[in-house]
Write a structure and sequence with these properties.
Blueprint (H helix, E strand, L loop, with lengths): L1 E5 L5 E5 L1 H13 L3 H10 L4 E2 H7 L4 H13 L3 E6 L2 E6 L2 H17 L1
Antiparallel strand pairs: 1-2, 3-5, 4-5
């Protein structure tokens, strides 16, 4: 168990278990690839199939599929099949909020 302390007007501390730290590290690992951040950004406007994502993101189909699978296995995305097309959508909005917060903070700092 690690105790994180944030100094502000009043002292606040948060006890974080090793399991919580491992889960947080896994979230950051999944989100560490710029391609995955691009995919999440594209899917914020709604469900898309692989072809639609490839129109917006410059990469190969195998690379796109690999990153989509990683996001799916991590529970960030869900998928459904419609004929030969596979459609992806965001199911974990907490991840989207984390991405937005980090992107906004980096914009502020620059």
């Amino acid at each position: 168990m690690v105790k994180l302390t944030k100094k502000s007007t009043e002292e606040q501390s948060i006890a974080v278990s090793d399991e919580q730290i491992e889960k947080a590290a896994e979230v950051f690992r999944v989100m560490s690839a710029p391609m995955r951040l691009r995919i999440i950004s594209c899917l914020c406007s709604g469900e898309k199939n692989v072809g639609e994502l490839l129109e917006q993101i410059d990469t190969t189909q195998p690379n796109m599929s690999q990153h989509l699978n990683t996001l799916y296995l991590a529970g960030v995305l869900d998928k459904r099949r419609d004929g030969v097309q596979i459609y992806y959508r965001i199911v974990n909005n907490n991840i989207v909020n984390i991405c937005r917060a980090v992107c906004k903070q980096t914009e502020i700092e620059n």
